[in-house]
Amino acid sequence: MPLIEITDIHKRFGAVEVLKGVSLALEKGEIVAVIGRSGSGKSTLLRCVNGLEKVQSGRIVVDGIHVTAPGADLNLLRQRAGMVFQSYNLFPHLTVERNVTLALKLVRKMEPSAAREVARQVVARVGLADKLLAYPDELSGGQQQRVAIARSLAMQPTLMLFDEITSALDPELVGEVLRVLEGVAGEGMTMMLVTHEMNFAKNVADRVIFMHEGRIHEDGPAREILLEPRTAELRSFLNAVLH
Amino acid sequence: MIREFSEADIAYLLLATRWTVLLALVAMIGGGLLGIVVAVLRVVQFRPANWLAIGYINLIQGTPLLGQLFVFFFGLPLFGLSVDAWTAAALSLSIYASAFFGEIWRGSLQSVSPRQWEAGASLGLTYAQRLFYVVLPQAVRISVAPTVGFLVQLVKNTSLTALIGFVELTRASQIISGATFAPLPVYLTAAAIYFVICFSLSQLSHMLERRLHAAH
């Protein structure tokens, strides 16, 4: 059984239909990069997976949880499906350590000392052991994004969703975040990432999905899709982003 | 009989200042509690409650505080409710403050980015946990400056209660000025006392803002 199973979902914002019947299945351990122009529905698709956006029709099942069913336990779903955002969204009033421990204590009901130990480990894993007691506004964008990844990892999710997590970063900071991502990918995490980093998609993703006008336009092995695009739309998109 | 403005008069002014401070405190607490209700009614997903809150806020913010004081002091007795100057002052200042606090706090809550709600949600936090651990602490930080700014206004506005005969700092100054015929030193002293209170409040605000480390 796939870890994520999306069946014919439709999503409208007012009069605009952003997703026009998307179906998709992700196996455990798969790394899928979602690419496409802005407005193609790729971020919306990702946000539907953990229930941040409600769909008008269709069905989403993630790790056995029926996301689209009325009364779905979205809080349980979100413990299993971690999400990292373009704008980091760290809690500015809490230190790095407390950003990580907050959900461990409130959701996982961990003892404060155990939660601090987890925080120490995950923050060290993203290379920021010396920043545990810093506040987000004392960190660079790249460092903040690494903390956001650590905060999500600490919950031990079964899959992770990454929504254009390097798009807000200065170019010289993108590398450090991608290296952390590669590390996470190397440990077998199931990942779905919306990205504009084509090289990263080519080298790290198993599979690439090209979204175009609210539909999946191409779907296949990463290298094949990116090196030998079948449709004119994908060719023109790749030309636009690569040159 | 005219006498000099003396240390005894300053002591009298300082003693009257107690009532200024106490009135401001009562209005702050009463207005604060009522202000929370106003803010909640303003944002709940129930139109009639929103309209009620908006009407209340416009009525209170759109009429002079002095008029509100008179309504309570002279108006309530018409309905057989006898109110002394203290009760009328405390009631009307609390209501006055609630309309402003309600709006300040609603604005502070709504100015915390929706992304913070999403970040909390994405970690599996319940709605209440998102509110109390993520959003409220940031809203409090945002609200400190406008809240204290309004408190400063509130302290100064307690002086209006002199007009219904409540003996706080301003009324005490009028009394001493009448007895000494030295209005300038008397009112300058009163102004200095108001300044000390308000300046201390502003300093407290700066200190709090530094303490409550949050987004700028």
Task: Furnish the topology, listing elements before pairings.
The complex is a heterodimer of chains A (243) and B (216).
Chain A: E1 4-13, E2 16-26, E3 31-36, H1 42-49, E4 57-62, E5 65-66, H2 74-80, E6 81-84, H3 96-106, H4 112-125, H5 141-153, E7 159-163, H6 171-186, E8 190-194, H7 198-204, E9 207-212, E10 215-221, H8 222-227, H9 232-242
Parallel strand pairs in A: 3-8, 3-9, 6-7, 7-8
Antiparallel strand pairs in A: 1-2, 1-4, 4-5, 9-10
Chain B: H1 7-43, H2 47-61, H3 65-75, H4 85-111, H5 114-122, H6 127-157, H7 169-180, H8 183-211
Helix pairs in contact in B: 1-2, 1-4, 1-7, 1-8, 2-4, 3-4, 4-6, 5-6, 6-8, 7-8
Offer a quick outline of the entry.
The complex is a heterodimer of chains A (243) and B (216). Chain A is an alpha/beta fold. Chain A contains nine helices and ten strands.
| Portion in helices of chain A | 25-40%
Major sheet summary line of chain B: none
* Strands ordered across the widest β-sheet of chain A: 6-7-8-3-9-10
Kindly report the average pLDDT value of chain A.
94
CATH-level-4 superfamily name of chain A: P-loop containing nucleotide triphosphate hydrolases
CATH class of chain B: Mainly Alpha
Largest interface: A-B, 25 and 23 residues
Tally the helices of chain B.
8
Specify the helix fraction band of chain B: over 70%
Describe the structure.
The complex is a heterodimer of chains A (243) and B (216). Chain A is α/β, with parallel strands linked by helices and 243 residues long. Chain A has a single domain (4-242), classed as 3-Layer(aba) Sandwich (Rossmann fold). Helices cover 38% and strands 26% of the residues of chain A. In chain A, strands 6-7-8-3-9-10 form a 6-stranded mixed sheet, sandwiched between helices. In chain A, strands 2-1-4-5 form a 4-stranded antiparallel sheet, with helices on one face. In chain A, strand 9 and strand 10 form a beta hairpin. In chain A, helix 3 (96-106) crosses helix 4 (112-125), helix 4 (112-125) crosses helix 5 and helix 5 (141-153) packs parallel to helix 6. The N and C termini of chain A lie far apart (40 Å). The relative contact order of chain A is 0.17. The mean pLDDT of chain A is 94. Chain B has 216 residues and is an all-alpha fold. Chain B has one domain: MetI-like fold (Orthogonal Bundle), CATH 1.10.3720. In chain B, helix 5 packs antiparallel against helix 6. Chain B is flat and about 75 Å long.
